[in-house]
Amino acid sequence: MNAPVSTSNLYDCRDAFAETLERLAVNDDKIVAVCNDSVGSSKLGGFKSKFPERLVNVGIAEQSLVGVGAGLANGGRLPFVCGASCFLTGRALEQIKADISYSNANVKLVGISSGMAYGELGPTHHSIEDFAWTRVLPNLPVIAPCDRIETAAAVEWAARYAGPCFLRLSRVGVPDLLPEDHEFVLGRANVLRQGSDVTLIANGTLMHRMVKAAEILARRGIEARVLNMATVRPIDEEAIIAAARETGAIITAEEHSIFGGLGSAVAEVVVENAPVPMKRLGVPGIYAPTGSAEFLLDEFGMAPSAIADATATLIMRK
Amino acid sequence: MQPNELERVARQIRLRDLQAVYAAGAGHIGGEMSVIDILTALYFRVLRIWPDEPKHPERDRFVLSKGHTACALYVTLAMRGFFPEQELATFLQPHSRLNGHPNCNKVPGVETNTGPLGHGLPVAVGMAKAAKLSGADYHTYVVTGDGEMQEGSNWEAIMAAAQFRLSNLTLIIDHNRFQQGAALSDTNDLAPLRPKLEAFGWEVTEINGNSMEQVVPALEHRGSLPHCIVAHTSKGHGISFMEDRVEWHHKVPNKQQYEIALAELSEAL
């Protein structure tokens, strides 16, 4: 499908997360929100006012945050454990491994303001390592929705899914890309645009930039396939192999280090199954300079025009 | 079960633990001997459990945060009927579900995977909080080592438990005074533990953790605050040449030592 892109209405996907969680919590009293003092930044103010006793705030203590989440699940609750992704996944990684992933605890980890959403606050607050840290862990689906519709669908899916998962959300505004009735299916990529010359793969905040890059490429006579790959693990191998075989080149873009993230996950599938030229766009293994999230994405070559240029260069290697 | 009967069971568990560690050629026998009286009192008297239905929603929760003493937990669970005692012979063998640290997805009766220290108490806080939210009346117990209390995550959880007023949570600190490499006092001395826990808003009881007469009432105590039992124990308790010797943290007895230990524990039976 060729999805319409509206640039005028940018949407903070945290709102879709919070609204969906509140809606689900009305009919499921097992749902609890667990946070590390992040009621505001996780947009849990509405949840707190509606279900005050079900908002479990452990204070600024991420190790305890994740461990308490595992215990709540053991006690039959359905915890959504929320925190800034940099602290949730970085500070509490061992808890995520032992208490959640290895124990297979039914905990939904929600990394807020991931990637470089905190922009000017700098690399301590950037979470450009979280795909790498989480996607190596068994039992832990890793999901980065691209718009408010997919965010809501992924939260609904997570509540139904019997097992842990990691939802990687941003606060950077994005346009609607998917139809209102979009249903999230774990491990399945969506084709946002058909094309046979090259494939553009992204997720999260990069998705709309990829769609715009494809529009630029089309004006240059290059028909790009665009895949929304919200699920980083388990990755949609079938869609990646088909893209490699049918379009002959793949470019990825992500709000993450180019090491270990979506691009690496795609490359792993490509190199073992259908080797074709690839280009990974992302943060090139450095700490970002000062700047807003949008500025930094442009700085690292992920403006739509720059993505289009990188794609045109890639195609010459076919 | 009365304290004198529990003492007999504890001696049997010590004996079986020694055999398992000797047979496997590995284990953490010192910390196992120190904690076995607590495990025995929990599983043979205090805990509301259904060995045939290990995931019963109303079961009391127990977390062995000092997961390296898994062998003592395995012996206790097997003798309590969670799985066949013969299976203890597979401890640490290839593909055995009795790993060096307990796995909740493989071993009936294990609630959460432990091994890295400082994990069990936060999870136990979550379990107790879940009961407060749902109205369930199960009680949550967690055992940590004393050296383990050097992990900062424990103090995060101690603060949360007090804030949540988790009267349904009991923390037992196996205070055997030795960690892997040296005495606590020569490493990062947390003692005395009581004033620290009290300062964080917990009720604290200090006992001889190798005396069943003291262990049972402490575990059965109920109050209005989260409860910490500082259990003064001896590393290697019950085997004379191991007691209070740091090297027996994870040393394995040779044949001669094994036979001496076996004789001492058998004699007490």
List keywords for this structure.
heterodimer; A: 318 residues; alpha/beta; Rossmann fold; 2 domains; 7-stranded mixed beta sheet; 5-stranded mixed beta sheet; globular; disordered N terminus; B: 269 residues; 5-stranded parallel beta sheet
Rg from Cα of chain B:
17 Å
Classification by helices and strands of chain A:
alpha/beta
Name the structural class of chain B.
alpha/beta
Strand percent estimate of chain A: 15-25%
Kindly report the CATH topology of the largest domain in chain A.
Answer: Rossmann fold
Q: Strand order within the widest sheet of chain A?
A: 2-1-3-4-6-5-10
**Spans where pLDDT lies below 50 across 5 or more residues of chain B:** none
Largest sheet of chain A: 7 strands, mixed
Q: For the terminal residues of chain B, how far apart are their CA atoms?
A: 17 Å
Q: Could you walk me through the main structural features you see in this protein, from its secondary elements to its overall organization?
A:
- The complex is a heterodimer of chains A (318) and B (269).
- With 318 residues, chain A is of the alpha/beta class.
- Chain A folds into two domains: 13-168, Thiamin diphosphate (ThDP)-binding fold, Pyr/PP domains (Rossmann fold, 3-Layer(aba) Sandwich), CATH 3.40.50.970; 190-315, Rossmann fold.
- Chain A has twelve helices and twelve strands.
- Chain A has helices spanning 13-27, 45-50, 62-74, 85-91, 93-102, 130-135, 148-160, 207-219, 237-247, 262-273, 293-299, 304-315; strands spanning 31-35, 55-57, 78-84, 108-112, 142-143, 165-168, 190-193, 198-202, 224-228, 231-233, 250-257, 278-283.
- In chain A, helix 8 packs across helix 12 (304-315).
- The two termini of chain A are 25 Å apart.
- Residues 1-6 of chain A have low confidence and may be disordered.
- By secondary structure, chain B is an alpha/beta fold.
- Chain B has a single domain (3-268), classed as 3-Layer(aba) Sandwich (Rossmann fold), CATH 3.40.50.
- Helices cover 40% and strands 11% of the residues of chain B.
- Chain B has a five-stranded parallel beta sheet, sandwiched between helices.
- In chain B, helix 1 (3-24) packs across helix 3, helix 1 packs antiparallel against helix 8 (255-268) and helix 2 packs parallel to helix 3 (70-79).
- Chain B is globular, with a radius of gyration of 17 Å.
- The relative contact order of chain B is 0.17.
- The model of chain B has no long low-confidence stretch (mean pLDDT 97).
- The A-B interface holds A 30, 32, 53-54, 56, 58-59, 61, 63-64, 66-77, 79, 94-95, 98-99, 102-105 and B 57, 61, 103-105, 111-116, 118-119, 121-131, 133-134, 136, 138, 140, 152-153, 156-157, 159-160, 163-164.
